[in-house]
From TrEMBL:
This is Diguanylate cyclase/phosphodiesterase domain 2 (EAL). The chain holds residues 872 to 1125 of 1128 of the full protein. It comes from Nitrosomonas europaea (strain ATCC 19718 / CIP 103999 / KCTC 2705 / NBRC 14298). Residues 1-254 form the EAL domain.
């Protein structure tokens, strides 16, 4: 309860910030977008990672106003970058289970796109497999309505959930993001190599884009390149940083 009140106060006081991490096109080598990642910066100037507050926000329902703030702020930033003359970048935003299941998600996304004037094609929502475990039919309907807005849909942490793969053919998904737990072992773990290679081949077969997260080394990158992975993300390219710290880099790499 103390934490809930602190988070509620933090949202009202503007203590949440977004960091942005580049997404890289494997063939062209340039940046194609960024992922927005929430951080909490209390007045003592420490930075609290999302693992410490997203679960609590999710339990208490505060994720709904917080998620709306994240979505609006990310879309505003995407628009601001276009207005400074950068090419349109993908703005990838994480959704929580509760946000995905909320009644007015589609209307909210539509309203924020209109208010911020971010082209719909620039917005990519990151979903997780766990969102589809219950209420599959309702999930399909929500996803179809989101797609009808013109946005992109990605599955985050792919391979770590417990859901069946049937949703890949039934749901309007654009991209798979291979979880970083598989990327970590690519240089030395034959199982991780097999899993990553299989996800990439399956994505190609299903005509889905595929991105590898958490790339930290050249060895990991070499393997992913050999397998034909479409997009990269990880500290090897850039850490998540505030918008202001990324702008020059985006200009140089787009
Ligand atoms: O940035 P970091 O690696 O610490 O993020 C940890 C986790 O927090 C990731 O799984 C990421 O998806 C999640 N996360 C980051 N920002 C947000 C957000 O704005 N909303 C939701 N729902 N999850 C987020
Ligand atoms: O679950 P999700 O994909 O949203 O989580 C993204 C998280 O991964 C972010 O919190 C980000 O800080 C973290 N991250 C991004 N790149 C790397 C990386 O190369 N190595 C590690 N360890 N974490 C990373
Ligand atoms: Mn993510
Ligand atoms: Na992930």
């Amino acid at each position: 309860l103390i934490m809930e009140n602190r988070l509620r106060h933090a949202l009202a006081a503007g203590e949440f910030i977004l960091h942005y991490q580049p997404l890289i096109d494997a063939r062209a080598g340039h940046v194609i977008g960024v992922e927005a990642l929430a951080r909490w910066q209390p007045p003592d100037n420490t930075i609290v990672p999302p693992g410490k507050f997203i679960p609590i926000a999710e339990e208490t329902g505060l994720i709904v106003p917080l998620g709306e703030w994240v979505l609006r702020t990310a879309c505003e930033q995407g628009r601001a970058w276009i207005d400074t003359g950068l090419p349109p970048l993908v703005m990838a935003v994480n959704l929580s289970v509760r946000q995905f299941q909320s009644e007015n998600l589609v209307e909210l996304v539509q309203r924020i796109l209109e208010e911020t004037r971010l082209p719909a094609v620039c917005l990519e929502l990151e979903l997780t497999e766990s969102m589809f475990m219950e209420h599959a039919e309702r999930s399909i309907e929500t996803l179809n309505r989101l797609k009808a807005l013109g946005i992109q849909l990605a599955i985050d942490d792919f391979g770590t959930g417990y859901s069946s793969l049937t949703y890949l053919k039934r749901f309007p998904i654009d991209k798979l993001k291979i979880d970083q737990s598989f990327v970590r072992g690519l240089a030395h773990d034959p199982n991780d190599r097999e899993i990553a290679a299989t996800i990439i081949a399956m994505a190609r077969g299903l005509k889905l884009g595929v991105l590898a997260e958490g790339i930290e080394s050249e060895q990991q990158l070499d393997f992913l390149r050999q397998q034909g992975c479409d997009y990269y993300q990880g500290f090897l390219f850039h850490r998540p940083v505030p918008a202001i710290e990324l702008e020059a880099w985006l200009r140089e790499h787009s």
